[in-house]
Recover the amino acids of this structure.
């Protein structure tokens, strides 16, 4: 019985560890009025967005939305707090499916850039 419990614990630990490793970080930088990355192509999966405020001079944010409905913001992609000048902030985990998205900052403000998920 002890061996069975040990095997179950090891298998569950491996499964949780594998799931944790599947989340990838996408780092994006904002400068005054723009993102430095103009287009991104990703594969389907789970992502955390890390947004850098590179001397914009005020707080910034991050919005990700399907290209077909820009008003349908993906709320998990919002940064956890507004990004203060010369700092970074992350989003929660976002699972992206195939399709086209747009990302932008309404506080900076920036144009809408394209994110493609293949």
């Amino acid at each position: 019985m002890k061996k069975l419990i040990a095997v179950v614990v090891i298998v569950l630990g491996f499964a949780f560890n594998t799931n944790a490793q599947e989340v990838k970080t996408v780092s994006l930088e904002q400068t005054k009025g723009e993102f430095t990355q103009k287009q991104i192509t990703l594969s389907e999966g789970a992502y955390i967005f890390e947004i850098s405020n590179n001397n914009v001079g005020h707080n910034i944010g991050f919005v990700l939305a399907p290209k077909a409905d820009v008003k349908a913001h993906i709320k998990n992609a919002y940064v956890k707090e507004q990004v203060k000048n010369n700092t970074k902030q992350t989003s929660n985990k976002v699972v992206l499916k195939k399709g086209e998205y747009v990302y932008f900052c309404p506080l900076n403000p920036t144009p809408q850039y394209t994110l493609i998920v293949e």
About this structure: The first strand starts at residue 24 and ends at 31. The helical segments are 2-21.
